[in-house]
Amino acid sequence: MAGPAIVTDSAADLPPDVALERGIAVVPLLTNFGAESYRVGVDLSADEFWAKLTAPGAPFPTTAAAAPGVFEETYETRFTGGADSVVAIHVASTLSATMKSAQIARDALPEREIIIVDSWSASGGLGLLALLAADLRDQGLSGPAIAQALAGRIGDLRLYVVVETLDYLRRGGRISGAQAALGTLLSVKPIITIGEGKVEQVDRVRTRGKARQRLLDLLTTDPVERVFILHGEAPDVRDFAAQLRARLPGAVPDERVVTSLIGASVGAHLGPGCVGAAILLRGSQDATIANSEVPNIQ
Fold it and tell me: pTM higher than 0.85 for the full model?
């Protein structure tokens, strides 16, 4: 395969068939249930993860980055397959040690052109960047040009999710105990966002129905280029997806809409019943931004 290869990690929540079809390599991160460790998407599918998470008496899962050697092997395999460069888009460095492992792997292959992009996001936000990278590759852009274009579009990403409880984010260390306690005390459905590498609560709504309507308001304010609907076995995800598509300002082609069951890398922090979406707003398509202007390229 001549040209650049696209690599991401399992925190992107890309459905396996979509990743395969688009030629995107996915590095499996780790999830641990007690003493048992699993490679996400390899030893543990999304369906298997949710079954384990919701089983009576199940230990709370923890997540971890893959070892640098796993990234190195993944990158090197792309080159032996014919790629002339690798563009690796990974989960936000503020949320995981994944970027650090990726950087160590890149430095172990100094003769190879490996460009690492910090997505400043996770789940569908990261997935949208990986899919955009695959489109740019198919358009014939070089590895550096793809990385520069991606870095220039990170500001166009939005991600909002309604969670049933903030307890999973608290137990995973993503928010403080005080933040989680307030949400529980008020018996609300929190809406969270991931932006600029941070998890933040943007609203608290009394019922799930009202929370979903607020979610739709947040997602349909501006014209959208791509959509990544995500959920943690939410029973209302189909209705939510239909309402979102109906309310989007301007049509989004079917091939630019993905629906995905969240996997273990992110699901352990959001918990069951969550539903939301990442969107890429219509923005600049310029792929010639100078490296000095895009510090998230590593």
Answer: yes
